[in-house]
Amino acid sequence: xxxxxxxxxxxxxxxxxxxxxxxxxxxxxxxxxxxxxxxxxxxxxxxxxxxxxxxxxxxxxxxxxxxxxxxxxxxxxxxxxxxxxxxxxxxxxxxxxxxxxxxxxxxxxxxxxxxxxxxxxxxxxxxxxxxxxxxxxxxxxxxxxxxxxxxxxxxxxxxxxxxxxxxxxxxxxxxxxxxxxxxxxxxxxxxxxxxxxxxxxxxxxxxxx
Length: 209
Hints:
Blueprint: E1 4-10, H1 16-27, E2 31-35, H2 48-52, H3 64-75, E3 80-86, E4 91-99, E5 104-108, H4 116-119, E6 124-129, H5 132-146, H6 151-170, E7 179-182, H7 188-208
Parallel strand pairs: 1-5, 1-6, 2-5, 6-7
Antiparallel strand pairs: 3-4
């Protein structure tokens, strides 16, 4: 069985996760969704105070070697064990999730297009393009309500690392994207077009098997 890998990138709060989940729901058991956020580096040797001030919006914040190995394994039809990251402690938790390979492999993450080793594995590259003011509002709501962050810390992180890293590493992803989707998960037309394309790819693969 051949596998179709679709990568969905975009700025923090752009709606890429919603789009990825909607595609996963459309194809149900034929698809698997992996978030790049699960692969933040585990640094228990650092104090909590040191972990808080790290730059989490730079590619170096991720264990890219593990992530790429896992994507390759899924492409080969193998099962992987995905780490789970605790954003309140800035560490990996003790829990993991076992993920079996499927026909459609959906990858999503802010810096998904920053490493050529990853983009070379993708059959479709989607960039979710959303206005900066919308993204920062969504990020504030998410980090304060779901990750226990203070408003001041979220704003400081956005101005200190999120915005400059977005301009350096995320925005250039538009140039290599196959599809640019405005407003992410709310764009039902784009969702329908992507889903139709994937359905045709799966159908063609089954007919040639």
